[in-house]
Inverse folding.
């Protein structure tokens, strides 16, 4: 088969193949343009949601950066210290009160014994009064002076019996009340110890949570800035990649124009073999250039399509960033501190009720002291009068001589009773002193339950409540922001599938470009086979002028040089930064 | 709010320019080629124009030459945003009245900084 015959046949194949390729590239360009539009819209949607999320996160960060929120930790620390002191004071006070109550029980027993002894003496005095009356009757007028003694003894006896009964009544009542208090305190002490230990642990935990939350919150501005910078970089990457599409679009358009040019040249070469043979080298060179252009397009497209996917995925990362989790962190912190404050408030209320009960119980101690004091005064008075009575009656009985021996014996007994009474009064005095000491000790112990003591805790509670109020406001704000963030994140997630699908469609579109490239490469090989000298018979400068006239990018010109002069095929590097403005 | 006109025959490039400028707080109007751009400039007031060079119907240089003749547009900044980087093309752009030249793809951050200075 001769070269000329082959050329005429080849011409038709070239024209046909190029027209088909041109049509394919046109269809591909339309599809790509449409898919790029979808990608750009999806990108704008993602970027919009990202903006929303970042703005919401920035608002939360701004809110938690507020000084009043960051002061929560010292406030909770102060509250913790106050609560510890509050409980420890009560624990110590309760231990002291228990000791007081135990001592009081002993004193009450002592007083009961005193009352019993006094009552026994009262009966003895009553008996002496009866004996004195008998003796007065026996002595007749001589003993009339002792009638007063009998009457006085009767009065003493009656008065002392009434007095001791009253004392016994009070001490018995008091002992019952105090036993109840002692039982309550004995049960309360272990509970208080447990409570103190629990508060230590819980406050420690709450402080650790608040501290850890604040540490986490304090890092959020940096996280936010990093997140914003990362998103800005990804957005810049997509913006640059979509623009790079415009460069490949122009390259593809120029390849189509070149196909039309080659096709027209071949068609215009006429049916003469010479014309076709002369045109074939230029067509061959033109095809070579277009093959290089399509290879360059393929590589560039792979770069920017990959860049778009990477950057879109990068933008989606915001939905899982720590910045998005800032809302729940604030909420958790508020929940823990609130729970701790509520617990301390409950403890304080319980303690108040308990304190009132102790105060009521111990208040009775003052009444007892009053009672014992009065009783002691009366006892001293009885002692003194008994001494006087014994002294006078002994003198009178001595004047009467032997006939008043019985009266003398009675008077001597009164003297003995007076001494015994004095001893008992002494014991009452000691008990009185001990009760006075107890009252002083109790007053000191009860200081722990005083308003001043409560005030320290209350002040810390007020301050914590105020700080908590700020934290709660921040938490409520964070919660509402977090809700909106969640909604924006869900919308972003919903778009992931769409973006992925569009990416696949883009790959499919450029698959048509691969088919065109393969067909043109096949055609060029066919030309080489049919016309082995076709490679040497074109003028590179003429071909360059012919095909580069419509070129609008440096990339195209560099690719042309690689095709015609064997320079390196330029590689389109993915760019995130883009080019700067050159001002004139 | 400052108004900016973006002229490009590529819808996706217009979209990216608009996205970048709107995000920076500008009002953006789009035109699909030089002819459309000139019509929009003639019927409205713009503080800055960003135009492509190679476009069907009317290219960027032709549009810019016509715009410079319109009342009130002698000193309005016009930036060329193009795939072209040849010195002779830039020279032609400067002579036609371009304020600056950007080879696609543009650096969004830097573009905004320049625009902020130009429309101040």
């Amino acid at each position: 088969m001769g070269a000329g015959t082959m050329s005429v046949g080849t011409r038709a194949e070239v024209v046909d193949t190029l027209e088909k390729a041109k049509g394919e590239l046109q269809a591909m360009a339309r599809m790509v343009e449409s898919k790029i539009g979808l990608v750009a819209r999806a990108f704008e949607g993602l970027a919009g949601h990202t903006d929303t999320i970042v703005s919401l996160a920035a608002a939360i960060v701004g809110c938690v950066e507020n000084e009043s929120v960051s002061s929560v930790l010292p406030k909770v620390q102060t509250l913790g210290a106050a609560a510890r002191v509050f409980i420890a004071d009560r624990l110590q006070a309760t231990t002291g009160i228990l000791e007081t109550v135990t001592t009081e029980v002993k004193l009450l027993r002592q007083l009961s014994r005193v009352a019993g002894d006094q009552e026994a003496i009262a009966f003895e005095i009553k008996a002496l009064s009866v004996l004195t009356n008998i003796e007065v009757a026996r002595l007749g007028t001589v003993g009339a002076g002792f009638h007063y003694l009998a009457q006085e003894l009767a009065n003493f006896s009656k008065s002392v019996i009434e007095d001791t009964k009253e004392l016994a009544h009070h001490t018995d009542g008091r002992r019952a009340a105090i036993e109840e208090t002692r039982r309550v305190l004995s049960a309360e002490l272990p509970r208080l110890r447990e409570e103190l230990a629990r508060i230590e642990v819980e406050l420690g935990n709450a402080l650790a949570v608040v501290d850890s939350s604040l540490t986490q919150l304090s890092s959020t501005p940096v996280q936010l800035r990093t997140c914003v910078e990362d998103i800005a970089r990804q957005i810049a990457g997509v913006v640059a990649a979509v623009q790079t599409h415009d460069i490949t679009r122009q390259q593809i358009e120029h390849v189509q124009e070149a196909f039309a040019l080659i096709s027209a040249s071949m068609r215009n070469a006429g049916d003469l073999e010479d014309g076709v043979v002369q045109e074939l080298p230029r067509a061959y060179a033109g095809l070579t250039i277009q093959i290089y252009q399509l290879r360059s397009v393929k590589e560039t497209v792979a770069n920017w399509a990959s860049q778009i996917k990477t950057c879109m995925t990068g933008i989606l990362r915001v939905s899982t960033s720590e910045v998005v989790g800032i809302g729940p962190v604030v909420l958790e912190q508020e929940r823990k501190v609130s729970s701790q404050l509520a617990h301390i408030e409950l403890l304080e209320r319980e303690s108040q009720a308990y304190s009132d009960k102790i105060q009521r119980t111990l208040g009775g101690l003052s009444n007892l002291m009053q009672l014992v004091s009065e009783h002691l005064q009366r006892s001293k008075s009885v002692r003194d009068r008994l001494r006087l009575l014994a002294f006078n009656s002994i003198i009178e009985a001595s004047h009467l001589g032997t006939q008043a021996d019985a009266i003398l014996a009675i008077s001597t007994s009164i003297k003995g009773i007076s001494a015994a009474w004095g001893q008992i009064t002494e014991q009452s005095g000691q008990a009185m002193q001990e009760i006075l000491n107890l009252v002083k000790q109790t007053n000191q112990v009860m200081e722990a339950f005083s308003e001043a003591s409560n005030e320290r805790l209350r002040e810390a509670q007020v301050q914590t409540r105020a700080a908590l109020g700020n934290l709660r406001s921040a938490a409520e704000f964070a919660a509402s922001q977090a809700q909106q963030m969640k909604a924006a994140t869900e919308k972003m997630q919903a778009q992931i599938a769409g973006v992925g699908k569009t990416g696949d469609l883009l790959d499919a579109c450029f698959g048509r470009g691969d088919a065109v490239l393969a067909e043109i490469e096949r055609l060029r090989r066919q030309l080489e086979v049919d016309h082995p000298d076709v490679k040497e018979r074109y003028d590179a400068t003429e071909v360059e002028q012919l095909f580069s006239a419509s070129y609008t990018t440096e990339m195209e010109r560099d690719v042309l040089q690689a095709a015609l002069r064997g320079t390196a095929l330029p590689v389109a590097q993915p760019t995130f930064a883009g080019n700067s403005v050159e001002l004139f | 709010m400052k108004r900016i006109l973006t002229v490009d025959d590529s819808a996706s490039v217009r979209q990216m320019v608009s996205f970048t400028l709107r995000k920076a707080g500008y009002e953006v109007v789009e035109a699909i080629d030089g002819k459309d751009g000139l019509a929009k400039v003639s019927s409205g007031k713009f503080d800055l124009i960003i135009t492509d060079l190679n476009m069907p119907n009317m290219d960027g240089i032709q549009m810019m030459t016509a715009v410079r003749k319109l009342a009130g547009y002698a000193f309005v900044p016009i930036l060329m945003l193009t795939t072209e980087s040849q010195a002779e093309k830039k020279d032609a752009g400067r002579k036609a009245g371009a304020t600056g030249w950007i080879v696609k793809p543009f650096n969004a951050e830097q573009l905004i900084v320049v625009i902020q200075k130009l429309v101040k």
